[in-house]
Amino acid sequence: MENGKKWGFSANNEIDSASGVTVRGVLNTLMNSINLEDKRQPIPLGYGDPSASPCFRTTKIAEDAIVDSLRSAKFNGYSSTVGILPARRSIADYLSRDLPYKLSPEDVFLTIGCAQAIEIAMMVFARPGANILLPRPGYPYYEACAGFRKLEYRHFDLLPDKGWEVDLEAVEALADENTVGMVIINPGNPCGSVYSYGHLKKVAETAKKLGILVIADEVYGHLTFGSNPFVPMGVFGSTAPVLTLGSISKRWIVPGWRIGWLVASDPNGVLKETKVLDSIISCLNISGDPATFIQAAIPQIIEKTTDDFFNNVISILRKSAEFVHDQIKDVFCLTCPHKPEGSMFVMVKLNSNLLEDVNDDTEFCLKLAKEESLIILPGTAVGLKNWLRITFAIEPTSLQDGLLRLKAFCQRHAKK
């Protein structure tokens, strides 16, 4: 100690164990493994941020909305903790388009991206002894937030041979009197799945039977390009209460703008009766708010963006998803059990027994980064060992180059 001084503080040593594996942490490790002597441009097939690719630039309407909001000088002050009214009303109207009932602005709470919506949801239900059911594979931010709040989490499996549907029998077996809810991610991250109306109805009926709510992560809402259209979980809000989480990040290709929402899709008023909405407001009162001038741009962004923009994004994603699926068939140690139908990802099974000096998915991705300057996320990071999550929301030429590097790596490490 300096000058013999004993300081009266130290870091919280439980933070690392509570947060567990995170996508950002794993991707940072992989980036640090890249060989700096390799003059090739690194290819990021592990990231869920398409905004870096020119083909995925957001619409000019959204850019103009931000400029208009900023230059008006009307939105330089603090926001209401729940979000400014015009933005909440616009989001309520936007989501109501797909529902059999109409949302009101009071059902909508604005958050700093979908990440804060997840944090708030985990905070609200983190009472002593409670537990929540999470999908595996899934998005590990849920585990991290639950762990920080001492909220126990239990995993139910998604079934790859059934299009990554929820194992509802496992959900019933896991739940007890202390279970508060279950999380579903649709369209799916990391699986690229899109649930049918019938399957979502069964999810709602299971939740009703167990007396729990559904937290529906729909940050990739409407980004679908397969046989199933996007059906919001809120359609079944009369069967079981639903908290819908979403944002403009993915559909409008602006993850850095950090505007999301947490919405009560609950026409029967269960969440109000059980004081859940009051708790959400209390949590928002002690947390940060999205930038006010970006909130103010929301009505113009939502109401004026044309279908041409959305259709172009979907077209690129569809072609890229088909390309990845077709190319993976030619890699002897990889298997894709389900062609992606939505979001920006596909899950691929790795058979490391066919490779030399590669024991599992983590070692595979570390060596791939070092030897090929190619970043792919190991399945361990999303709860499924010896799988890989590949992002196809990237410039098509880079995607093609990345898959060529992947094939070369696998051929080089094939057992003789």
Summed up:
With 416 residues, the chain is α/β, with parallel strands linked by helices. The protein has 14 helices and 14 strands. Helix content is 38%, strand content 15%.
What does this protein structure show overall?
The chain has about 425 residues and is an alpha/beta fold. Strand 3 (about 130-135), helix 6 and strand 4 form a beta-alpha-beta unit. The protein contains 14 helices and 14 strands. The protein has helices at about 15-20, 25-30, 60-70, 85-95, 115-125, 140-150, 170-175, 195-210, 270-275, 275-285, 290-305, 305-330, 360-370, 395-410, and strands at about 45, 110, 130-135, 150-160, 165, 180-185, 215, 240-245, 260-265, 335, 345-350, 375, 375-380, 385-390. The radius of gyration is 22 Å and the shape is globular. Helix 3 (about 60-70) crosses helix 11 (about 290-305), helix 5 packs across helix 6 and helix 12 runs parallel beside helix 14 (about 395-410). The termini are far apart. The strands form 3 sheets. An 8-stranded mixed sheet has the order 2-9-8-7-6-3-4-5, with helices on both faces.
Features:
four-stranded antiparallel β-sheet; single chain; globular; eight-stranded mixed β-sheet; 14 helices; alpha/beta; 416 residues
* Helical segment count: 14
3D shape: globular
Strand percentage lies at 15-25%
- Helicity, in percent? 25-40%
What Rg is obtained from the alpha carbons, in whole angstroms? 22 Å
Q: Please state how the strands of the largest beta sheet are arranged side by side.
A: 2-9-8-7-6-3-4-5
Quickly give the structural class: alpha/beta
Mean pLDDT: 95
Q: Distance between termini?
A: 57 Å
Number of strands: 14
